[in-house]
Amino acid sequence: ILNVEQSPQSLHVQEGDSTNFTCSFPSSNFYALHWYRWETAKSPEALFVMTLNGDEKKKGRISATLNTKEGYSYLYIKGSQPEDSATYLCAVRMDSSYKLIFGSGTRLLVRP
Amino acid sequence: NAGVTQTPKFQVLKTGQSMTLQCAQDMNHEYMSWYRQDPGMGLRLIHYSVGAGITDQGEVPNGYNVSRSTTEDFPLRLLSAAPSQTSVYFCASSYGTSGSSYEQYFGPGTRLTVT
């Protein structure tokens, strides 16, 4: 059974702090990794899709890295703002299966 | 574009009742899927479709049926509702099935309670 683990489960930071969280997955048969941002009462929104070992993606103050050999991805937020408060979901696709396996998310709260 | 739409937003069912959750997308997306979201757990895939006329099971398909007669619509049927099916249901679609074309667009969700 494929297990996608995200840590920490939740995180409280002050406005202006930089933060990062982790997504871990089995490294064999990896195909792609997705990061989503999910604000309360809204739908998940795609942030990044990453496929290659060493991939780095950036969108504004948010960036992500991927290590497929050791089975992890980091999501970084630089200078957190209250509007960054959301649950960040990681999802992994193995082989070329259509199935996305989601982690349970990291819930970020940024205090003003 | 309306994107991915789901109806209803909320539903309460009694055990044993059946119903259909509707999902539609107007982006001409090839791939559509249904997930359920339960507290403390990630989104879990129920069923998916890679095109009209093609469906397949996800992680948790039992108790649910789907069909894909058109590209736009992907309804989810609960055959005989059980309290274990109390959940929030999300429909998602993507343009393709490889690389970044597999980026999923999610609907607003349907909150279902089975008593």
Helix count of chain A equals 0
The total strand number of chain B stands at 11
User: Strand share of the residues of chain A?
Assistant: over 45%
Note poorly predicted spans of chain A. none
Helix fraction of chain A by DSSP (H/I, runs of at least 4): under 10%
Residue windows where pLDDT falls under 50 for at least 5 positions of chain B: none
Which two chains form the greatest contact, residue counts included?
Answer: A-B, 23 and 28 residues
Helix and strand succession of chain B?
Answer: EEEEEEEEEEE
Number of strands of chain A: 11
Structural class of chain B: mainly beta
Report the span from N to C terminus of chain A.
Answer: 40 Å
**If you average the pLDDT of chain A, what whole number results?**
93
How big is the Rg of chain A?
Answer: 13 Å
Radius of gyration of chain B: 13 Å
How much helix, percentage-wise, in residues of chain B? under 10%
**Which assembly state applies to the chains in this document?**
heterodimer
What gap, in angstroms, lies between the N and C termini of chain B?
36 Å
Task: Count up the helices of chain B.
Answer: 0
Biggest beta sheet summary of chain A: 6 strands, mixed
Structural class of chain A: mainly beta
